[in-house]
Amino acid sequence: MGERSPDTLVVTEANRDAAHLLTQWRAWPNGALALVGPKGAGKTHLALAWALEAGARQLQPAASPETAATLFQEADRRLVVDDADGPRNEEMLWRLLDLARTEGGAVLLVAAEPPARWPVSTPDLASRLKSLAVARLQEPDQALMEVVLRRICREQFIYLRDDAARYLALRLPRTFEAAHQAAAALDADLVRGAKPVSLKAAKAALARVQAARGVGDG
Q1: Digit-coded pLDDT (tens) for 152-206
Q2: Which three-class secondary structure state does DSSP give residue 125?
Q3: Residue 167: what pLDDT?
Q4: First and final CA of the chain: distance in angstroms?
Q5: How many Å apart are CA 36 and CA 85, to the nearest integer?
Q6: Are 77 and 47 in contact (CB under 8 A)?
Q7: What is the maximum span of the chain, computed from C-alpha positions, in angstroms?
Q8: What's the pLDDT score for residue 218?
Q9: Helix orientation angle between 43-54 and 16-23, rounded to the nearest 10 degrees
Q10: So what's the pLDDT on residue 10?
Q11: What whole-number distance in Å separates Cα of residue 120 and Cα of residue 88?
């Protein structure tokens, strides 16, 4: 998981419902919740904020059932499993969800797709995943788009001026993918240590993104 502080988490309409569900972790049905959303949506960031608040620890999706059971107890029954829809130990995941249900835990599974869509070969696990409560992160609204743009650029040592950030947030497609594409376009045109990104540079970056997507400015 990343090292971003939960203090930087911005709640907007795009992630408000998911953020609220995380604050209700003591009441998660069967002691577990899946946090899902598109790539770049900030799932790991939000999960980190929850883990710090709840005192949860991270468990690798390929961990053994024995490791999961031990860590579950050591962490006071509060665990995060990131990339839970990728390669994983199905026996471990079933045991973890069973422990959360029977012992009153709080297990957060972070993934791109809802658990009901995960390919699994264990019938009991498939049934358990289909009944799991889900918190969904949506594609960004304008407010979140601007925040995401600034964050991505900052991580690449690119400083966006306010007018440049607003310009891009208003005109880019409202997707996290587009935010990453815009940052890449800015990075390609900038010299390290250059002045903050101007409105002119933002317009050039938008044109590059639109050209790559095969759309015009209108």
Answers
A1: 888 888 888 899 999 999 999 888 888 889 999 988 877 555 568 888 888 988 9
A2: helix
A3: 93
A4: 40
A5: 10
A6: no
A7: 59
A8: 41
A9: 20
A10: 56
A11: 10
Structural tokens at position 44: 């790991």
Q: Which residues contact 12 (CB under 8 A, 6 or more apart)?
A: 140, 141, 143, 144, 147
> Helices (H), strands (E): how many in the chain?
9, 5
d(Cα 21, Cα 28) in Å, to the nearest integer? Answer: 8
3-state secondary structure of 186: helix
Task: With H, G, I as helix, E, B as strand and everything else as coil, classify residue 158.
Answer: coil
Q: Give the pLDDT confidence score for residue 189 in this predicted structure.
A: 77
The rounded radius of gyration (Å) of the Cα atoms in the chain is 20
Q: Which residues, 6+ apart, have CB-to-CB distance to 203 below 8 Å?
A: 167
Residue 189: beta bridge partners?
Answer: none
> Residue 1: its pLDDT value, please?
42
Is residue 77 packed enough to be buried (19+ CB in 10 Å), middle (13-18) or exposed (0-12)? middle
- Pull the structure tokens for residue 103: 């012992």
The answer to whether the beta carbons of residues 183 and 211 sit under 8 Å apart is no
Give me the residue label for tokens 């090292």: 3
Residues in the chain where the model's pLDDT stays below 70: 1-14, 191-195, 215-218
φ/ψ of 139, rounded to 5, equals -60, 155
Q: Structure tokens of 115?
A: 């658990």
According to the model, what pLDDT value does residue 198 have? 84
Q: Exposed, middle or buried by CB within 10 Å (0-12, 13-18, 19+), for 175?
A: middle
* Dist. CA 205–CA 212, nearest whole Å: 11
